[in-house]
Write a structure and sequence with these properties.
By secondary structure, this protein is α/β, with parallel strands linked by helices. It is built from 15 helices and 15 strands. Strand 8 (250-255) and strand 9 (261-266) form a beta hairpin. Helix 1 packs across helix 4 (114-125). The termini are far apart.
Amino acid sequence: MLAADMSQHTPTIEIDIRDIALLIVLDARDQRESDADTEELKLLAESAGVVIADEMHIRRLHPDPRFYIGSGNAEDAHLRVQETGANVVIVGTDLSPSQQRNIETITTVRVVDRTQLILHIFAQRARTSEGKLQVELAQLQYLLPRLTGKGVAMSRVGGGASGGVATRGPGETKLETDRRRVRDRISVLKDELEKVVKQRAIQNKARRQLQIPNVALVGYTSAGKSTLLNYLSGSDVEAHARLFATLDPTTRRVELGEGASILLSDTVGFIRNLPHHLVAAFRATLEEVTDADFLIHVVDANHYYMEEQRSAVIETLKDLEALDKPIITVFNKSDLIADQYDLRRLIAETPDSCYMSALTGVGRQYLETLILKAISRIMKRVSAVVPYDRGDLVALCHEHGRVISIEYAPEGVHIVAELPPDLAARFTQF
């Protein structure tokens, strides 16, 4: 059901394009909410590359402790599997290890829950070494409680330099060996990621020394963040209309009007009900959000479930303790919206917001105005008389701040400027 190839340092979940899936959707009480959940599960399954054969809708007030969906629904799922030829059941919620095994026993095919499905997509999308480390760690942490000796397949667990030397002790079962190797690998991955976090801290410190505001793009997956980054920076970051096209953060410098500039970072797209343990597992990647001076929330204004998606992003920002940051809201894909009244209403109701098409560039001027205002809010106004032998400080004002006025007096350069806090602190002596 899961295969962890430790010799390749990337455990994989056995989902591929040959899989034919029966989707099991857990309906909410609200029909619109249920429809949104159904669409998202379908998108997740399609992003994983499986063919959707059929879908079941189940409504339960309380999860069944043994099967989650109930034994009767598990039997119905077995019949659907036989009728459609499905070889995998995808359940749109998180299952306990025992619930997953029990449904597998009834349906006689593999069962994949929501976290497992997301992790598989993450594994497909990860490109950098950091991303791959985080995916492997999250998959192994998911895998560990599911090792039973029969329900979960392990392939070459413990291979590689660290795991290959491990040998089975006297009386140790294969299950115990597998668990020990997984724990050892988890420990190694945590150490490696700790080094990555320290390296990122050094990089962030170097960025701070540039005295340029750090801005993070956040939003629901496929809202158009990467397209916006490409448009503003002139870069060619991969941008696709698919879930989690961007897993590894990308940072580019963006030049704005009035001589201002920002460092703009693209981040992994959020989804509804993103499992809390996945937020924790990818915290290093999401540090771009927590370290930013302010955020740009990109919203797909043309999406039928726009409000639900906006709420999902706000909930994730809350989990990251980033809601206290200034947020600019960009209602993207405005070129696809026929009713401009709705668009104007959204902007009127949302502070610090604008409409834009990241694809065509229409509305860029409104976004730039909001960014400049946000920069101004985090800047400190300085009025100082700088000695002539400190011309380097005057140059920094021009390079990293906004010079409001400058006069050359006998005692020095009288300058009034708005500067980043770190740079402003260097003028207190004057």
